[in-house]
Design brief:
- The complex is a heterodimer of chains A (about 190) and B (about 850).
- Chain A is α+β, with helices and mostly antiparallel strands.
- Chain A has a domain of about 110 residues: Alpha-Beta Plaits (2-Layer Sandwich), CATH 3.30.70.3270.
- In chain A, the strands form two sheets. Chain A has a three-stranded antiparallel beta sheet with strand order 2-3-5. A two-stranded antiparallel ribbon of chain A has the order 1-4.
- Chain B is α/β, with parallel strands linked by helices and about 850 residues long.
- Among the domains of chain B are: about 90 residues, Roll (Ubiquitin-like (UB roll)), CATH 3.10.20; about 170 residues, 3-Layer(aba) Sandwich (Dimethylsulfoxide Reductase, domain 2), CATH 3.40.228; about 100 residues, Barwin-like endoglucanases, CATH 2.40.40.
- Chain B contains 28 helices and 34 strands.
- In chain B, the strands form eight sheets. Chain B has a seven-stranded mixed beta sheet. In chain B, strands 15-14-24-23-22-16 form a six-stranded mixed beta sheet, sandwiched between helices.
- In chain B, β1 and β2 form a beta hairpin.
- In chain B, α8 packs parallel to α24.
- The chains are: A alpha+beta (about 190), B alpha/beta (about 850).
- At the A-B interface, α2, β2, β3 and β6 of A face β6 of B.
Amino acid sequence: MTRNKPNIWKYSLSAVKGIYDAYAVSMINFLRKPVTEEYPEYKRPLPERSRGRIILTRDPDGDERCVACYLCSAVCPTSCISMESAEREEDGRRFAIWFRINFARCIYCGQCEEACPTLAIQLTPDYEFCQYEVLDFVYEKEDLLVDHGGRHPDYNFYRHAGVTEKGDKGAHPDEEEPVNLKSNMP
Amino acid sequence: MPRLIIDNQKIEVPEGTKVIDAAEQLGIMIPRFCYHSALGAVGACRLCAVKFLEGPVQGIEMSCMTDARDDMVVSTDDPEARAFRRFIIECLMMNHPHDCPVCDEGGHCLLQDETVSGGHDIRRYKGKKRTFRDQYIGPFVQHEMNRCIHCYLCVRFYQEFTGYRDLAAYQIGYRVYYGRFEPGQLESPFSGNLIDICPTGVFTDKPARYRGRRWNMERSPSVCIHCSLGCNTVANARYREMLRQEARLSESVNGHFICDRGRFGFGYANLPDRPRRAEIGKNEASWTEAVRALANRLTISDGASEMKKTAVLGSARSSLETQAALAILAGSAGWPMPAYFADPHQSSVCRTVVRRLDEGLAVSMKEIERADWILAVGADPINEAPMLALAMRQAVRNGGKAGVIDPRPVFLPFDFTHLPIPREQMEFCLNHLIHSGIARQEADDAGEAVAGFYAQLPEEAEFEEAVREGISTLAEGLKQSEHPVLICGTDIVPLSTPDLAADHAHLLNRIKNTCGLFYILPGADAFGAAMLEASAESAFEDLLKAIEDGEITALMVVENDLIGAYPNRKRLETALDRLELLIVLDYLSTPTVDRADFFLPTTTVFETGSCFINQEGRLQYAEQVHAVGAPIRQLRGRSHPPREHRDEVPGGDPRPAWRAVADLVRALDLDEIRLYTSGPESWLTGSKGPFRFFQEKIYPPREGRILPAESEVAPFKSSIKKEAKKPEAGTLDILFVDRTFGAEALSALSEPIRRAEPAAAAFIHPKDASELGLSDGDSAILRFEEGDLEIPVALNNDMARGLLVIPRKPDLEWQTAGARFPRIARNRIAGVRKETE
């Protein structure tokens, strides 16, 4: 049985090639335009509909949009939303006396936004709100409420739904005057 | 028996069954709004349309209006029927405000369900929506008329079923409006059922407004404990707070409905001042500390196993488990057996009831609905057991006759004959009435015992003209009756009346082969309490006597407001002062709790599963609804729940009273391991336990009567007087009575009930009033020996003379009168003129 003798020249050549090839790749990429974004120095603008931190928006009149109808909490797959509804003393408007989202549990699926009939709850592109304490992820209503209408600045639920909140019945655009019960007219 | 085919399934149903019911028997739920099995069919909503393919009827027809007949072939999901129903829904939704997010019905709304399942999603009609103004209709029900679909269920229920007229349909055509003529509180004490019955959000629960949707609630089948009927409910709690009660269908007890006292009376469970910590003296302590300290106080000296002799007072509102546990505790500690009624009158009559009621006589409310002659003695159904009035009304609607022998001004929502007889003459009147309604020959034919009893009944009676007429009307009704029912109250009747009523029920039973007997008792579990008292021969009067004599120096009061319930305040105070140790277990904050040396907080019916026996001997189980603990709303007010983690539930100390008793037994080292090693089943079943007439020994028990087949007491032993007892001249009888709202101890604490209750007023006959110089609205000052009682008077023609009827309201110190049935001399009543503007 003959033993193959290693060819020392061949080995040396491949080692040198390896080193120079790597330098060549580095040199080529060194001259290219970089693709890495320098987070946190650079923050990429996310699409408007990307799903991050949740906010509660206001209607064009500046009132809270949320009527605490419990639909977002019902649809939430992780049950991270809880709230309690109440009647506002001055005008009888339904609102949330407290509203809580546990972001430690939230999976940003956006189903709450889809369920919301008043367009109050909206997901924003903001994703930067890491915390050291789990309890700091529990956002109360005052943390969630913003002073704008989010993506839908013009919508006002109460102008479309036929319930009175301020003023008389029949005041909405698509409504007739209230029926006069004491009238004999046909 | 028609045989028909519905959706390819054959079914045979009794004659007269509607197709909608036949389908339901097959498990096919045809959509409907206006059809309700208790109220019948009117065909107003047109939603139950189905297609009749073959047979006597063909084409699209309303299944609620069509009787099932032979050879019918019905398709519920024929494309034509579906299209028809979708069209109906679209029309119904044309004026709907589309306000589901702010509507409380959303989540359990029939209109919502049918709209979604019918496939209607876009409002194609572009015209304007019709609107209505809403009304204030009282503290129980919220009105929002825009949501109405005009199915007429509310008015049919309110006017036809309950017999009140103040909610009606107004206007015509598309302006039909359901409401009151003027805004104001609904008069019917059954108005809360509008919430359940309305298929959409016109009538919603006002106290629970916006507090949560159906899916947020912890819901459990429960039993109402605000009177003795034991109506079935569904209790709804959220965040450890009771929010709503709904009626639960019970074929034999309440049917589909409950009264407002039961529906809105749960407020006591949520009260912020509900005691939730154990107390030693007035110092708060943990449960274990308190039980240990209590055991030490009860043991006379260290080392010796001798114990301080303690009297135990249970209650008629406690669960059966608690009542039975108390009996075991007292028995093994060598104490006198517990009493359960503070009021000696209640104790005595309830024991009679338990001894006399058996399977042969007892009837359920369902059977009352089928009766054709009902006589209530010493009962005021609408105030003492409101749902009974509704059952009686159904009997009258079916052609039955009803009469009430009662001195009070009795109102019932149907035509009945009221015999306003003074209290001591009620028995005489009953005897005379039954005598007039039964022919001598019939009695003679029914055997010697019956004939002998009949012969004792008074033939002649001297009554006023109106009463004589009433008696002859009722006697005439009894002659023709086939299913008579006797109702006997226990609140104001003389002690012998329950016995007498049972004898008369036996008499009618022998003659007519059927006669029901229906007692009204003073408490949700008064029946169980009376069973335990009767088998142990114990009574609170004896215990009180022993306390006064100094033989007993410790008293344990369990879930009973002794100070509020005992009719003689002065005597009780003196006895309580003699006590060395007063131990109180309760879930309410009562004057008795304030006096306690030891206090242990207990749970309400909503926080523990518990058994109750209603007045017809029916055992029912109320399941636990929510965990023990202070409502979340009470921890931070109207703000968000606390943001910290804790090991213990705040306010979570209360335990079931029977658990407290078991803990005490363990701390006292008594030889009663079954109290804490196993569940309540072992101590409820035994040979003397309340379940002894019950076949299945399981816990929680199944619903059913726990009555003996035949009572041990032989009938016809009542002594019968030939002459009516004459009322004493110069004095007025005083009756302290129950009211629908505001007199029952638990519901009186509920906020909406408090708003609905009328102002306290004493009823008096106008002639008595004019003799006393009082007119309507004046205040009367009753000068009792122990103190004065001031109350406005209300004149009422429809009541006995020589009588003052006063509601037993918790804030009215009626116990100053010093007796359960006091008499007061006319010259001790002073009048105060009503201030006129």
